[in-house]
Design brief:
heterodimer, A: 191 residues, mainly alpha, 3-stranded antiparallel β-sheet, 8 helices, B: 245 residues, disordered C terminus
Chain lengths: 191, 245
């Protein structure tokens, strides 16, 4: 997550001090991402060096300075907001690896491995859901963060369901030679 | 004491080569105020389990008790009374009566149970209001959206003195915000002592329950542990949530 751009976003509403930025950052993100004040000052110094923010007293101690976003900073913020994050799948997702490895290990039932991870995911989702049970204590930033986490975990649980259904339809056979040459060739061609 | 208890419950359909074992030795109990979700793939026996827990189907073998009463020892009339007074059902396809308005659908079980029409209507209106449907109370089911029909079905299930709520994919037709409203309503019913069993294949929905039971091929294969304090997941970690420059 980019602290640099979050700080630019907070400064887009007006000049602020470092401590104020730390507090606003934490409340904007539903207090889920605690931020070290030292990290705020380091980031502000870099933003100032790059001409994206200006302080009211350049060269003096950042702790006593108020910062304002520059035109370049506003352009950088707009560019960042509109740039899709890197959503390309990691080449080796650990859970995918565990399920693939479980298929190979003698004496291991891959369905049991899938269930172990499904239960863990649902237990985590129960914890996140508990956090939003009391709607009265719920601010919009926190609600969005909790939903994002729930949807992320849910997508992993759905993959486990799909994997289980696929394994059910296609019983595991002892592998003889290369079983997936076509797909592999396609992947190589895409690179 | 458990409010619902299934002991060694088996259910089979058909005979010989066509025999299907839908449930194979289910053990499940839910305390008053308990909220249990039953998860499993299609064909795992989830809906059959719910029908048997609600006395809508008889088990082939085993024992079902509701509020301490053994269902196999009750007459048809006694079971009908139990279903009318004690159990609220929410089905996947809503099962609203097309010739009755939303509020009439909600109050019907109360009126059948001898509550005066005016009082039943007031209770029904309050339930609809809680689900944001007060302005739809005089509409017929075919004048409501899928989500609205589902919420009417929920209101009908929780209205009155129900002590057991059984729901089969209760937010299936709803978007996530309305689905959440439905789960909140079930949860608030549980906080007043109602026992709830919700059948779903959706982890998002199941995560509202205190306990999630996993079914596979008619058997309970696993269940969640009591969750630790929710705040523990907000503790600073060095994992992927850690801010980085």
């Amino acid at each position: 997550m980019s602290v640099k751009h979050a700080i630019l976003a907070l400064l887009s509403t007006g000049p602020k001090y470092g401590l104020q930025l730390k507090q606003e950052f934490e409340s904007t993100t539903g207090d889920v991402w605690p931020l070290n004040v030292g990290q705020v000052y380091t980031t502000l110094q870099r933003l100032e060096r790059d001409g994206l923010v200006e302080s009211d007293d350049p060269g003096s101690d950042s702790a006593h300075n108020s910062f304002v976003i520059t035109t370049s900073g506003q352009e950088e913020l707009s560019r960042w907001l509109n740039t899709p994050p890197d959503l390309v799948a990691p080449p080796r997702d650990e859970l995918v690896m565990k399920v693939l490895c479980a298929l190979k290990v003698p004496g291991i039932d891959v369905n049991d491995i899938i269930q172990t991870h499904r239960r863990h995911l649902v237990e985590l989702m129960q914890q996140w859901t508990r956090l939003k049970e009391d709607e009265a204590d719920f601010d919009i930033g926190f609600a969005l963060v909790v939903d994002a986490e729930l949807f992320r975990l849910d997508s992993v649980a759905r993959w486990l369901d799909a994997a289980e259904a696929r394994l059910h339809r296609t019983p595991i056979k002892p592998q003889a030679g290369d079983r997936a040459p076509v797909l592999r060739r396609r992947l190589v061609r895409r690179k | 004491m458990s409010f619902v208890e299934l002991r060694n419950v088996y259910k089979s359909y058909g005979d010989g080569a066509a025999k299907v074992d839908a449930l194979r030795g289910i053990e499940l109990s839910v305390e008053p105020g308990g909220f249990v979700a039953v998860m499993g793939p299609s064909g795992s026996g989830k809906s059959t389990l719910l029908m048997i827990a609600g006395s809508l189907e008889e088990p082939t073998e085993g024992d079902v008790r509701i509020d301490g009463l053994r269902l196999s020892g009750l007459s048809r009339n006694q079971k009908a009374r139990l279903r009318r007074r004690t159990i609220g059902y929410v089905f996947q396809d809503f099962n609203l009566l097309a010739g009755l308005t939303a509020v009439e659908n909600v109050c019907l079980p109360l009126e059948l149970d001898g509550i005066a029409a005016r009082k039943a209507r007031a209770i029904g209106m309050a339930a609809l209001e809680e689900l944001g449907l007060a302005d739809r109370s005089n509409r017929y089911p075919d004048q409501l959206s899928g989500g609205e029909r589902q919420r009417v079905a929920i209101a009908r299930a929780v209205v009155g003195e129900r002590r057991l709520l059984l729901a089969d994919e209760p937010s299936g037709a709803l978007d996530s915000v309305n689905g959440e409203a439905v789960m909140r309503m079930i949860l608030s019913a549980c906080k007043t002592g109602v026992a709830a069993v919700v059948v779903t294949h959706d982890a998002h929905l199941a995560s509202w329950a205190d306990r999630v039971v996993f079914l596979r091929d008619g058997r309970v294969v696993d269940q969640t542990n009591p969750p630790p304090s929710p705040e523990s997941i907000l503790q600073p970690s060095t994992g992927p949530n850690e801010p980085s420059l």
